[in-house]
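Tokens for UPF0178 protein BZJ21_08765. Go.
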Amino acid sequence: MQIWVDADACPVAMREMIVRAAHRTQIQATFVANQFIRLPPSPYASARQVEKGFDVADNQIVADAVAGDLVITQDIPLADEVIEKGVTVINTRGELLTKENIRARLNIRDFMETMRSSGVHTGGPAPLGPQQKQAFANQLDKWLVKAQRYHAAQAKSSD
């Protein structure tokens, strides 16, 4: 079990939070982006730079993530693809994306894209506030606790 981060749009504050959590729990976090990403030093955090291009980072995450992993992304189509593989997905606002809610998110995304392409100014997401940062930290901690229990059970069964 490891963490995959769609790092191109991941806020610096969240990157730092993820690295600290990965280091604390000794769970690998890989940040995938098509540009250089600066990370705090940790043997449990790495940056993987991929070629520039549409969905190159997303495709790399889809290829590498496996059931039980965690993907952190704002990208709804990426979330949909990895959820189908049994991957847990949270966005940087702390929302858990699941099989039950991803279709509605895709519909909203498509509607907003249609509005923008027709010339309607829809604005972007609101800036991250303390509540969203706390919600993200809570969701990340929930997954980390689950991952640590899994690793402890695996270690116990191999004894």
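DSSP finds five helices and six strands in the chain.
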